[in-house]
Design a protein that fits this description.
about 350 residues
């Protein structure tokens, strides 16, 4: 049933004959069923988001710790004051009442009020989100480009020394925990080891007291180590997927035909092999985009980066239940939304999907 890669035909080829006509027919059939495919994927995403909403409520109530003790700062307080705090935040209600109130408010965009900051959870998330997007967006662009570039080169030079070195290094870095690598970079490049001086800040997003272009340079200076950590850990997966997909394409008859027509090897790779091999990588890119937002918690904590990850760690230590629940929902929603977008885009790139 699976159709081979579509090879472009001359402009005067018949619309219904030859590989181009077959490719257009396959795409037309795929697009005809696309609305139903979209509806199914969107319904699945909605169910997943609802499941995350339920899970986020019950999961974090298993965390040991009393939020009221944090709110009182450990001071000796009367039973009446404790009861007042519990009434203020709805902690005196039965769990099922708390759950129904939480779901009702969440469906209207109200994720509750933070115990420790005394502001709406959504405001804290909105405040920290740009910092996380700056870190994850920069790292995402760099490790995606690096993984695709090295993956295509490794596949085209399969079995050579460069291929073995690339895949070996990618597998090694991919297996290293991000927090451990971050701590190692802080020790070597921030604190300094022996004759190697400390070149970068140990944490934070800015030094303070700078404006204009000096402020931008200061933020970039603080951004280097966390970005390097994320790129080093994440690029290997993109490299390996791209390399594997391109190796599968390299034995295709259409590549042999292209070479027989006299096309140079680099043109065969760029125009024919790589576009078809990138289809699995497109899915991975969207998945990584959502996963990076959720997986940046450890890196932001290690480097004291003021984003969603650091905020989640801070809220978890209280526990600040509304803030933890809201952040967990945002992290999970990012993954679900990116996966759904990848599912919706894939049939447009490959008509064989969604039949």
């Amino acid at each position: 049933m699976a159709a081979g890669p579509v090879v472009s035909e001359p402009a005067d080829a018949g619309a219904g004959s030859g590989p181009a006509g077959a490719g257009r027919s396959a795409r037309a059939r795929a697009l005809a069923g696309y609305p139903r495919y979209v509806a199914g994927k969107l319904a699945g995403a909605a169910v997943s988001l609802l499941a995350v909403l339920v899970t986020s409520f019950f999961l974090f109530r298993l965390i040991p710790g009393d939020p009221v003790k944090f709110m009182t700062g450990g001071r000796p307080v009367s039973a009446q004051q404790i009861a007042a705090y519990r009434r203020e935040f709805g902690l005196d209600l039965p769990v099922w009442r708390q759950f129904t109130q939480y779901c009702g408010k969440a469906l209207t965009g109200d994720l509750g009020t933070s115990y420790q900051f005394h502001v709406p959870v959504l405001d804290k998330i909105t405040e920290a989100l740009p910092n996380t997007l700056l870190l994850t967006g920069t790292a995402f662009v760099l490790y995606t480009a690096l993984g695709i570039f090295l993956g295509t080169r490794s596949a085209w030079r399969h079995g050579r020394l460069g291929d073995r070195l690339n895949t070996g290094l990618a597998l090694t870095l991919y297996s290293i925990p991000s927090f451990w690598l971050g701590l190692l970079l802080i020790v070597v490049l921030s604190v300094g080891v022996g004759p190697v001086p400390g070149l970068f800040p140990t944490g934070g997003m800015e030094s303070g007291g700078k404006e204009g272009f000096a402020y931008v340079l200061d933020v970039v200076h603080h951004l280097v180590l966390p970005v390097v950590t994320l790129v080093a850990v994440e690029y290997g997966q993109t490299l390996l997927v791209t390399r594997s997909a391109l190796l599968d394409e390299m034995g295709g008859d259409y590549l042999t035909t292209a070479r027989a027509k006299g096309l140079r090897d680099d043109l065969v790779r760029r125009r024919h092999a790589v576009p078809n091999a990138l289809l699995p990588t497109v899915t991975l890119i969207f998945v990584n985009l959502g996963r990076t937002v959720a997986g940046v918690i450890l890196v932001e904590t290690v480097f004291s980066w003021p984003g969603l990850g650091g905020l989640f760690y801070q809220a978890l230590s209280v526990p600040d239940l509304p803030l933890v629940q809201g952040l967990f929902f945002v992290f999970a929603a990012a993954v679900i939304i990116m996966n759904t977008l990848a599912d919706l885009l894939y049939p447009l790139l490959d008509p064989r999907v969604g039949r």
